[in-house]
Write a structure and sequence with these properties.
Layout: E1 2-6, H1 15-27, E2 31-34, H2 36-45, E3 53-54, E4 66-71, H3 73-83, E5 90-94, E6 104-105, H4 109-118, E7 121-133, E8 143-144, E9 147-151, E10 159-165, E11 168-175, E12 177-181, H5 189-192, E13 204-210, E14 220-223, E15 228-233, E16 238-243, E17 246-251, E18 256-270, H6 275-282
Parallel strand pairs: 1-2, 1-4, 2-3, 4-5, 5-6
Antiparallel strand pairs: 7-8, 7-18, 9-12, 9-16, 10-11, 10-15, 12-13, 13-14, 15-18, 16-17
Length: 291
């Protein structure tokens, strides 16, 4: 089995768990590859690990059976952008905090490898959002797992985002920004701005305004078959747009459209995983003396 491990950075306290992961993969005679970023941090940490190859280029990912993301949800989002249309199944090991996406606890890495080899898992296809613009943005990686956002720049005054669904006028959002989130992203930025929680396999997008100046404006759920188009107005000449954690500045002349991406992100979920159980734990639901 060919497996690539990716991570952006990690603290020294996580080194023993990473060593356990690599040793567990060796026991199953896995062909182990590390991304350059992960290998750099592994070397810096002084970890005692060997028997791996540096991933020579992104194209090599096509030969992988799995990619293991070591870090928090941000690392998994970075892994999704790296894998892209290769659609290699991704397993997230959580060394961060929330862990809505990277759901395997660091203490369970050896068990996780056993479950992976025993085939006791399912692969969930998570919808991605695609950004179409009349210029090249985000270094040719125009998709995201969580959300696309339009936001005012720095401390400038509010902006107006004129929004259209399949060419039909929806609303002009007077706000600090606007979020278009996937079901996966409904537990992220959108949630913090008052957006609804959506089951990850639902076929929807949610449009959530950021600090709207029209108090009667509310988040709205639309079909993920919709094509959503925007024009932006504001006092500033430039605005910020983002795909997950990647952001760039654009001016109002850029035409922006989002729709569902043609390919998906494949996330490995073990049989004992439950989205609703994760919600209860991460959001502290039920922590009430009446329960």
């Amino acid at each position: 089995m060919n497996i690539t491990i990716h991570g952006i950075k990690f603290q020294r306290e996580f080194v023993p768990f990473i060593e356990q992961l690599i040793n567990a993969l060796h026991k199953h005679d896995a062909e182990i590859y590390l991304t350059a970023a992960f290998q750099k941090n592994l070397k810096k940490s002084g970890a005692k690990a060997s028997g791996f190859t540096i991933l020579p280029n992104r194209e090599k990912l096509e030969e992988m059976d799995f990619v293991i993301s070591v870090g928090g949800d941000g690392t998994l989002l970075d892994t999704v952008s790296m894998v892209g249309d290769y659609e290699i199944p991704i397993l997230g090991i959580n060394t961060g905090r929330m862990g809505f996406l990277a759901t395997i606890a660091k203490e369970d890495v050896e068990k996780a490898v056993e479950v992976l080899y025993d085939g006791q898992f399912t692969i969930q296809d998570r919808a991605l959002i695609n950004l179409k613009a009349d210029k090249t943005l985000f270094n040719g990686v125009p998709f995201a797992l969580n959300e696309f956002t339009i936001h005012k720049r720095d401390t400038s005054s509010m902006i107006t985002v004129h929004t259209y669904i399949d060419g039909e006028y929806l609303n002009s959002y007077w706000a600090d920004g606007l979020i278009i989130a996937t079901p996966t992203g409904s537990t992220g930025y959108s949630l913090s701005c008052g957006g609804p929680l959506i089951s990850p396999l639902a076929k929807n997008f949610v449009i959530t305004p950021v600090s709207p100046h029209n108090l009667n404006v509310r988040p709205m759920i639309v079909s993920d078959e919709s094509e959503i188009t925007f024009t932006i107005e504001g006092r500033s000449e430039k605005f910020l747009i983002s795909l997950d954690s990647r952001s760039t500045a654009v001016d109002a002349s850029v035409k922006l459209t989002v729709k569902k991406e043609k390919f998906v992100a494949k996330l490995v979920k073990f049989h004992d995983y439950s989205f609703f159980d994760t919600l209860r734990k991460k959001l502290n639901w039920g922590f009430d003396m009446r329960n």
